[in-house]
Specification:
single chain; Rossmann fold; five-stranded parallel sheet
């Protein structure tokens, strides 16, 4: 057989009796795959590898500790031979053929009545590859197809109506390459994408035909939709049977109101999945070469919005403070931090539109940053970093990078 004369199909083995003859590594892999399909597995082998023993001790397979007997085929739907002894495998295959039982003969694929393909599962999609009897080739092809599915390179969108669901996907700081693999997979499945203005907008251009994009972006003083309206949209679209991806910037649960959206969906009986994202609180400083912690400079960090009071945060240059969307109240925030003991020489960086072609970094100190920001017209979206870690940035001017460390360190 070259594979041309195969008729590809999938067996439903849930609750059915299957037989694995052999106890080595191949037998263990096949037994696990059959278990994953819901089959009732019996292994026949005088000795068995650790993985087979483990399955038997857990009670998930039955292990007959002896050689194969013809009676082992009684009531069996499917057989896998993997003894490593061609004569034994051939006997099992021949006796299974006489009884019209499908059998995969691991010792002789050319004469085997059935072949086991290389398989991978991506959500509810199963990829199965036969490659002319070349298992390594089949595995390489299977891995490539599975990767393309997981990264959204192949269409995963359903064409039949199923129960709707919602996925809250953290898109990262905006660069299309910084979304998670799981996030890309869900975008490939989506019927509806509810999009923020700060997410990876370039991914919207890659959506398949017929995918609806609902814009709900928020900007200071200009909201396309209120949070209550966004919640209602998610539930309404899911209850209509759609796969809904709520594509958010950063991480849904880091100052992104994802918790509210998830709770609203669950209260209305809508299945919801949360996919973490690369939070801008850490990734945007990194885009400017600033680590939020650095040996000898900072061992911890706090994240807040510019609208929060800063009176409860540690006020030391060796504890990094990251402010999200804090440009409008920069002067107030600087004044609060100075009143709590941070000196005017404490380094400050503002990273606008991080990870985009329009990224801009403005660096000064707590005493100068307000004037510098005003002079260049700093605007949101921006992340503000306060503390000695700013000195590490390659954008730091010499008066900041080389200045003596602050004296109020702990």
């Amino acid at each position: 057989m070259s594979g041309i004369d195969l008729y590809p199909t999938s067996l439903r083995l849930l609750g059915r009796d299957v037989l694995v003859v052999g106890g080595g590594k191949v037998a263990a892999r096949r037994a696990q795959g059959l278990l994953d399909a819901g089959a009732k597995v019996t292994v026949v082998a005088p000795e068995a590898a650790h993985d087979v023993v483990r399955l038997a001790e857990a009670g998930v397979v039955a292990w007959a500790r002896r050689g194969y007997e013809t009676a082992d085929l009684e009531g069996v739907w499917f057989v896998q031979t993997a003894t490593g002894v061609p004569a034994v495998d051939a006997r099992v295959a021949a006796e299974a053929e006489e009884r019209r039982i499908w059998c995969v003969n691991a010792a002789d694929h050319e004469s085997s009545a059935a072949w086991t393909p290389a398989t991978a599962r991506v959500d509810d999609v199963t990829v199965a590859v036969n490659a002319g009897g070349d298992p390594r080739r089949a595995k390489a092809l299977k891995d490539a197809v599975a990767l393309a599915l997981r990264t959204g390179k192949l269409p995963l969108r359903r064409r039949r109506q199923f129960a709707g669901r919602v996925a809250l996907v953290g898109g990262g700081p905006g660069d299309t390459g910084l979304i998670t693999v799981r996030g890309r997979t869900l975008l490939a499945e989506a019927d509806v994408v509810v999009a923020d203005r700060l997410g990876p907008r370039g991914l919207l251009e890659e959506l398949g035909d017929g995918v609806r994009v609902i814009e709900v972006g928020k900007a200071p003083g200009a909201h396309t939709a209120t949070q209550d309206e966004i919640n209602e949209i998610l539930v309404r679209e899911a209850q209509a049977g759609n796969v809904v991806v709520r594509l958010k910037g950063g991480d849904p649960y880091v100052l992104g109101r994802g918790g509210e959206e998830a709770a609203f969906c669950r209260r209305h009986g809508v299945d919801v999945e949360v996919v973490p994202g690369v939070t801008s609180a850490v990734s945007v400083p990194a885009a400017a070469g600033i680590p939020v912690t650095h040996r000898g400079l900072a061992t911890g960090f706090s994240v807040a919005t510019g609208h929060d009071e800063l009176t409860e945060l540690p006020a030391r240059p060796d504890h990094t403070i990251v402010l999200l969307m804090g440009v409008r109240r920069l002067a107030d925030s600087a004044a609060v931090l100075r009143s709590r003991g941070l000196g005017d020489s404490t380094p400050v960086a503002i990273v606008e539109r991080g990870w985009t072609p329009e990224q801009r970094v403005t660096i000064g100190t707590l005493g100068t940053i307000v004037d510098r920001a005003r002079a260049v017209g700093v605007a949101n979206p921006a992340v503000i970093v306060i503390g000695d870690v700013v000195r590490v940035s390659p954008y730091a001017p010499s008066d900041v990078a080389e200045a003596p460390l602050s004296t109020n360190r702990q």
